[in-house]
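User: Hi! I have a protein structure encoded as tokens and I'd like to know what sequence might fold into it. I'm fairly new to this, so please keep things simple.
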């Protein structure tokens, strides 16, 4: 709605419009202040929040004066409006913009969504269409600072996604499955693990008679769920699949919200459809006592529901094994209905057998994945990832369990900043710093009393069995010293051997085991009989010799969990035999399986296992086991890397794997990508462990074999970490080729995060090594990267020199794919420099080579280059033809590159006198770029606005570097 033509816009470029005139504001800082005020019209926004929005954590000394200046100029902007009441007031608490919410496009969009959810399908569909039409691209596109784009924009984009899903569901309800399928295809391609659009698309394909496509889609998505998340898809997706199999009609689905998917989208206007994670481990079956602590947590939950300006944080602190995790998980299950937007859980591994604690960067990425944020929308910088995570939690009620924290610094970046969520932190440290600076509540957890310990045993053993051994049980309780972990293991041991007297359990400790090491000494109570090692030994002694060996070897692993093939390699055993032995450990509660196919254990048990390995297995055997494990990761990663990066000649040549190593060889690209995604924490840990234990070649090869995945998926920080490890390792063994590859990997990672100085330094270091080693292929690789860098820096003539040198080197080494790619790069540089005939000659030769080699990606890039050249030559129709052929491959596989091609296609269409087609192409490009929050979206949006009035630009098509198109 507009009053006298006035509209306040947030869903795209920020501004105040009256009719067709932009009234203001005209600077990014003013737009930021206006956006902050319009997000909450009628509510006071403090000076501190405005400063944070403008400068995040590094405000200048003049920040407050600058905000006051922005407010003053905004008042002058508002004064230009006629016929509308809009007042910007000042108070002691901050600033408030009083304006009718219906004049703000965001709030009008939310109102329409709210109405649609309560309307008949036809009207709801119309209302959602009107609401979605208000979006002119990514929200808040032209504000200053990084806080709003990181903390607010992602949640707003989720609101748009939820509305798109709901409108597609209404298409089905209204009997328009063709329209639903058309709208859902792009959503599913961008969000394959988001169950609701997948379920809707299955139904739409089914109803349009495309049953085979529907079944293929389900198989593909199910594989992604099991490979990447280790879980099966949810109930609604299975229902839709079953309906396709049986040929049934699934009926109306417009208002269905599957479990574990969008939250409250049909309850609150404008609620963002963020995924609803359910990450809590299973509840503790025999949880006992802790009445006081449970009451305290209930009180905190009531305080949380009472509102306030900050999330509620509680630190459960106590010694290892005292039951901190059990209390947190049990209460979280009890209270989960209070937090309908989901529960996040992570073991931070602050205390354990190794120093491999999870970093905040690792955890934030895990949480973003759990919230189903696509990898291409996750920023490379850690601070930006934190902002995105906190933005997704804004105005949501979520329960977050941060288990086994090392210190306050590990926890702080993981805390939400908005009210509504409750955070449980468990740690062996008190984390006093969180209480001082974040207002965390502290809940100390002590050992169980004798009465509470007895109650635990009664629940685990049964009252009849306990009563029969009352006297002995009291002795066992005393021996366990109130440590819940020890009591639980005693009970489990007794339960697995019915009729075994507790006196036997009490007396089966061995003196030699008490001297095994000092990793568990912290749990001594002054009496050797209460040593937790002895308690662990009861379960260990019941294992078969082969099972005991596998348990000991698992203690050598630094990663948080291990897969079956990796465990088989560690043990040097066949997979089937290893599976049986791991099942034995599962039954004895010596390992767990939080995620199907991944085995892990309590850190105390891992410590115990490591101590046993150090005591009972010789150094040579331990080293050989670690060697096999590292062989598994290297020999599994190398073929996966070849699938992800087929254009690069194999430069990783690991030594043959030891006997007994199981290698995972993915058959196609999707499987390879899923393997790397699932194994990333293990690969990082393995690289560190390899370097620490002197397996330097393995450390370098793990990084090099992971490079393509890390770069393609945007794991720039992990790529830096792994290639630094690789570089140090390669220097240890004086492996110059490995050093060069590490420099290339670091240069590529720094390029991704915009550190061009770092890119230049490392690529030149690689080039120097390749020249010293007379490695022609390596030199070509380095010159190619330098060409990409020079183009990005606007130094096109220098880029052409590097591309030409790379071509000569590829020809010398007979690297045909590299030669074809470099011919295209040279053609592109000539086109950018205006030498169109030369550009045409190079690109036509590149096209012929790519076709002969069967390189579809290279062919698509070259078709795009030819489109640019013919456009510059004035042959618009031919340019259009080339662009359209390039898009056949690009729009499905390289969507950002596809958007760039679409922008160039639009210019050719406009110059050919087809403005309507040009607008359609630009809108398609804008949709793709907005999907990734890409910075080029604004220039496309500007061109779209110009298209109505501007004259043809004589082929001045937007440019993209050859490096971005690979």
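Assistant: Happy to help. Inverse folding works backwards from shape to sequence: for each of the 966 positions I chose a residue that suits the local structure. Here it is:
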């Amino acid at each position: 709605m507009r009053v006298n033509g006035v509209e306040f816009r947030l869903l795209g470029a920020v501004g105040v419009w009256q009719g067709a005139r932009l009234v203001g504001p005209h600077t990014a800082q003013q737009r930021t202040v206006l956006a902050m005020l319009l997000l909450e019209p009628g509510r006071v926004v403090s000076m501190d929040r405005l400063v944070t929005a403008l400068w995040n954590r590094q405000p200048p000394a003049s920040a407050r004066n600058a905000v006051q200046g922005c407010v003053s100029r905004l008042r002058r902007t508002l004064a230009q409006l006629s016929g509308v009441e809009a007042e910007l007031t000042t108070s002691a608490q901050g600033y408030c913009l009083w304006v009718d919410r219906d004049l703000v496009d965001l709030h009008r969009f939310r109102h329409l969504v709210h109405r649609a959810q309560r309307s008949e399908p036809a009207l709801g569909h119309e209302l959602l269409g009107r609401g979605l039409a208000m979006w002119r691209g990514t929200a808040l596109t032209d504000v200053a600072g990084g806080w709003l784009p990181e903390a607010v924009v992602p949640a707003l984009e989720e609101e748009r996604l939820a509305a798109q899903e709901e409108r597609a569901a209404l298409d089905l309800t209204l009997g328009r499955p063709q329209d639903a399928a058309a709208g859902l295809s792009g959503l599913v391609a961008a969000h394959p693990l988001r169950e609701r659009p997948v379920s809707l698309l299955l139904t739409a394909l089914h109803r349009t008679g495309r049953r085979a496509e529907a079944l293929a889609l389900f198989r593909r998505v199910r594989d992604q769920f099991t490979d990447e998340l280790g879980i099966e898809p949810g109930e609604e997706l299975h229902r839709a699949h079953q309906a396709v199999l049986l040929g049934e009609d699934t009926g109306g689905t417009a208002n269905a919200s599957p479990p574990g998917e969008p939250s409250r989208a049909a309850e609150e206007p404008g609620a963002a459809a963020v995924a609803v994670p359910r990450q809590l481990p299973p509840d503790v079956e025999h949880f006992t006592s802790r009445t006081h602590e449970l009451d305290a947590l209930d009180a905190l939950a009531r305080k949380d529901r009472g509102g306030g300006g900050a999330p509620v944080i509680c630190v459960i602190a106590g010694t290892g094994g005292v039951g901190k995790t059990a209390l947190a998980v049990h209460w979280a299950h009890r209270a989960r209905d209070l937090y309908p937007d989901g529960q996040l859980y992570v073991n931070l591994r602050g205390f354990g057998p190794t120093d491999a604690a999870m970093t905040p960067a690792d955890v934030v990425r895990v949480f973003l994945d759990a919230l189903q944020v696509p990898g291409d929308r996750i920023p490379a910088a850690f601070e930006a990832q934190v902002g995105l995570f906190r933005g997704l939690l804004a105005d949501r009620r979520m329960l977050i369990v941060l288990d086994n924290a090392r210190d306050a610094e590990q926890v702080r970046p993981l805390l939400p900043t908005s009210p509504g969520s409750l955070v449980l932190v468990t740690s062996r440290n008190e984390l006093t710093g969180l209480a001082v600076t974040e207002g965390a509540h502290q809940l100390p957890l002590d050992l169980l009393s004798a009465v509470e310990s007895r109650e635990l045993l009664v629940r685990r053993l049964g009252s009849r069995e306990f009563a029969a051994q009352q006297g002995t049980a009291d002795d066992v309780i005393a021996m366990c010293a109130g440590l819940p972990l020890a009591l639980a293991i005693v009970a489990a041991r007794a339960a697995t051997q019915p009729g075994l007297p507790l006196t036997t359990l009490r007396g089966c400790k061995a003196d030699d085991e008490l001297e095994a090491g000092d990793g568990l000494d912290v749990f001594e109570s002054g009496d050797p009989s209460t040593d937790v090692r002895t308690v662990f030994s009861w379960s260990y002694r019941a294992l078969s010799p082969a099972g005991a060996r596998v348990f000991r070897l698992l203690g050598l692993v630094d990663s948080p969990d291990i897969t079956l093939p990796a465990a088989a390699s560690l043990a040097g055993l066949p997979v089937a035999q290893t599976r049986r032995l791991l099942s034995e450990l599962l039954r004895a509660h010596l390992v767990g399986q939080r995620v199907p196919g991944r085995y892990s254990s309590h850190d105390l048990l891992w410590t115990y296992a490591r101590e046993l390995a150090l005591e009972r297995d010789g150094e040579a055997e331990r080293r050989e086991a670690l060697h096999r494990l590292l062989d598994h990761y290297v020999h599994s990663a190398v073929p996966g890397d070849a699938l992800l990066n087929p254009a690069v000649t194999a430069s990783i040549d690991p030594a043959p794997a030891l006997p007994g190593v199981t290698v995972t060889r993915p058959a196609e690209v999707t499987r390879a990508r899923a393997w790397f995604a699932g194994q990333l924490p293990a690969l990082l840990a393995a690289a560190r462990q390899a370097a620490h234990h002197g397996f330097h070649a393995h450390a370098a090869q793990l990084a090099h074999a992971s490079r393509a995945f890390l770069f393609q998926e945007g794991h720039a920080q992990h790529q830096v970490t792994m290639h630094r490890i690789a570089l140090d390792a390669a220097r240890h063994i004086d492996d110059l080729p490995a050093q060069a590859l590490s420099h290339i990997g670091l240069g590529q990672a720094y390029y991704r995060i915009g550190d061009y100085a770092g890119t230049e330094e490392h690529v030149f270091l690689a080039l120097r090594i390749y020249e010293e080693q007379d490695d022609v292929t390596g030199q070509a690789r380095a010159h190619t990267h330098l060409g990409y860098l020079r183009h990005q820096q606007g130094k096109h003539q220098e880029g052409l020199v590097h591309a030409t040198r790379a071509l000569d080197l590829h020809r010398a080494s007979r690297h045909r794919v590299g030669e074809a790619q470099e011919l295209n790069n040279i053609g592109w540089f000539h086109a950018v420099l205006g030498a169109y005939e030369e550009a045409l000659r190079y690109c036509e030769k590149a096209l012929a080579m790519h076709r002969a080699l069967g390189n579809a990606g290279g062919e698509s890039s070259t078709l795009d280059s030819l489109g640019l050249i013919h456009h510059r030559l004035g042959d618009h129709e031919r340019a259009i033809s080339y662009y359209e052929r390039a898009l056949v491959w690009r729009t499905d596989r390289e969507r950002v590159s596809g958007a760039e091609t679409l922008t160039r296609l639009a210019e050719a269409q406009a110059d050919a006198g087809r403005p309507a087609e040009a607008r359609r192409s630009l809108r398609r490009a804008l949709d793709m770029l907005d999907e990734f929050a890409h910075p080029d979206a604004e220039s496309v949006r500007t061109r779209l606005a110009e298209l109505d009035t501007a004259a043809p630009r004589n082929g001045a098509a937007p440019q993209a570097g050859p490096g971005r198109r690979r």
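A useful reference point when you look it over: The first helix runs from residue 28 to 39. Feel free to ask if any position seems puzzling.
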